[in-house]
Design goal:
The chain is an alpha+beta fold and 113 residues long. 42% of the residues lie in helices and 20% in strands. The protein has 2 domains: 30 residues, no CATH class; 71 residues, no CATH class. A 3-stranded antiparallel beta sheet has the order 1-2-3, with no helix packed on it. A two-stranded antiparallel ribbon has the order 4-5.
Length: 113
């Protein structure tokens, strides 16, 4: 026998009653879980994975001759986390767009809520 869950109201609030195998019951308030939101903070690996392999190669190659790209990669490599709302993150992505290493569309995809 499987546990069965039945919703009911108690004092005008939504509750649920779980009937356990063997006859026991558990009553608890039924608190709706809000939908998950997209995180705006990434680990270094998660952030790098937002770029295609070809984009990563282009950015890494450009960092060898462009100090701006080197600074962006350096900051990304030493950061504990990459916050998409942090002004330096946005400025770095803008710089990559200005150097045609990523498109404006790609930047928008990365920063999308």
């Amino acid at each position: 026998m499987e546990a069965k869950v039945a919703p009911f109201e108690k004092n005008g609030e939504p509750w649920k009653r779980t009937i356990l195998p063997g006859g026991g019951t558990i009553e608890e308030i039924d608190i709706p879980v809000p939908p998950a939101t997209k995180s705006r903070v990434y680990t270094r690996l998660q952030f790098r994975s937002l770029f295609s392999f070809a984009e990563q190669i282009a950015i890494t190659t450009a960092a060898k001759t462009d100090i701006g790209v080197e600074v962006f990669l350096g900051m990304m490599n030493i950061a504990e986390e990459i916050d998409l709302d942090y002004p330096d993150t946005i400025a770095g992505l803008d710089y990559l767009v200005s150097k045609e290493l990523i498109t404006e569309e790609k930047k928008g995809q990365i920063l999308a809520p």
